[in-house]
């Protein structure tokens, strides 16, 4: 049976091998949202770019920079500029 596309549904990731702290989930959500907001959603289908982007954000994760409201946006803008 296929679910109706307008039914509320969320995927459970309880079977994943790794535990992701909420700050990492929020960081990923920010990355995805910012890429879409900047009209570059096609990059989310590019495995090489997405891997580079996630690694780039992970490298800055402990830094204070991404804790600022615009810090993640600055990092994403830099990653998008590299993709152009």
List the helices and strands and how they pair.
Blueprint (H helix, E strand, L loop, with lengths): L21 H16 L9 H14 L10 H13 L1
Task: Explain the overall architecture.
By secondary structure, this protein is mostly helical. It has a domain at 26-83. It is built from three helices and no strands. It has helices at residues 22-37, 47-60, 71-83. α1 (22-37) packs across α3 and α2 (47-60) packs antiparallel against α3 (71-83). 10% of the residues are buried.
List SSEs in N-to-C order.
HHH
Instruction: State the oligomer.
Output: single chain
Percent helix range: 40-55%
Any idea what the radius of gyration is? 15 Å
How would you classify the helix and strand content by structural class?
A: mainly alpha
Low-confidence stretches: none
Please state roughly what percent of the residues sit in beta strands, choosing from under 5%, 5-15%, 15-25%, 25-35%, 35-45% or over 45%. under 5%
What attributes characterize this protein structure?
single chain, 84 residues, mainly alpha, 3 helices, 0% strand
In short:
The chain is mostly helical.
